Protein: Serine decarboxylase
Organism: Capsicum baccatum
Amino acid sequence: MGSLSFEKDFEPSAITPRGLAPPGLIPNGDFGEMKRLKLDTTSTTPRKNLNLSVTEPGKNDGPSLDCTLMNYIDTLSQRINYHIGYPVNICYEHYASLAPLLQFHLNNCGDPFLQNTVDFHSKDFEVAVLNWFADLWEIEKDQYWGYVTNGGTEGNLHGILVGRELLPNGILYASKDSHYSVAKAAMMYRMEFEMINASVNGEMDYSDLKAKLLQNKGKPAIINVTIGTTFKGAVDDLDIILQTLRDCGYTHDQFYIHCDAALNGLIIPFVKKMISFKKPIGSVTISGHKFLGCPMPCGVQITRKSYINNLSRRVEYIASVDATISGSRNGLTPIFLWYSLSAKGHIGFQKDVKRCLDNAKYLKDRLQQAGISVMLNELSIIVVLERPRDHEFVRRWQLSCVRDMAHVIVMPGITKETLDSFITDLLQQRKKWYQDGRVSPPCVADDIGAQNCACSYHKIDYIIA
């Protein structure tokens, strides 16, 4: 897709410090090309604190503004191949085309479906993005309401708020492996909160859910269903949860379901039909900067149009109705999302999903063959492994760790070459960590299951079995 054009020629110098991009370093202003140029010389050194301060013009004795920014960009570019521990897709090439938009302040305040009196917004792009997701999650355009959020947490806060407003005395249920923003919502809204146990793979324990639903039968249920848990990538089975509600005698007017699909909301629909408003769910949210990819945090939240009146308030100052959490919203993000969706299309997503699932299995198999404790859930791109012993190694690969576990999230920009480099580095380091036999790899049977643990005890136990 071509670059945006304006009647007045756009001058990058208006928003980019002069000298920030020296000739030859970023051909044609393409930062994607700069990334590619840096891949062969990536640094293994984690980024250090820059210890910056704001200086007065003409009174700065240190590096120039341009030099500081150029060094910062250089550092980030060198660290791209080591970004494997968190769910952010940094594989996109649209910022050069969309850079001209940075000269405008775009604010999508109020309802996305109502125009503002000011012209500097991108609600038309926002509605196009919402319509795309409404189609993906099977709800008619005149039956839904939604908006582009600042991220998955805001989506969870909004979805749970809709449920609370519909069922004011409802109890919020969520598994212990759900995102921390769910408990945050319960605290902010002063909701009664029931934490549901999770199985060893991170999926909700449905027997515990049933027991607690029966225990609280007199009150409505607001259930957070996690479509891909943060650390293990486990998927709560929506159909089992709905059946559990029916078995416990809850009618449709006695429960509300919010689906937190921050990462997997753009993966699972291209593998199996699970997330659908044809089922009695109330809302779905995803993070736009995760599998789709966007330079700034963002998300999409969709709920049923019939529910939103409980939140809507007319605001005369902006000549609109507002039912959002944040009010003012970044008008750039809907354009980035629209551009990515349009450039990639369903076929592009299907290819990305297949490649990521295949690469995740490749990593899991390689680690397993090397005798390393590892687990991979079905429909997940999150590979959970034993926590590396050395903090420096963890920082080099920017890994997320919980207890004795770490994980690698195989996003679209992560290639087999990157995974091979990680595996080679890990195997070399493990020889140093465990060479004298006085220290052994951790037992992670309680965290990922005995069948996935390769500690000395469970490895022998598995061989005997």
Observations:
- The first strand starts at residue 144 and ends at 149.
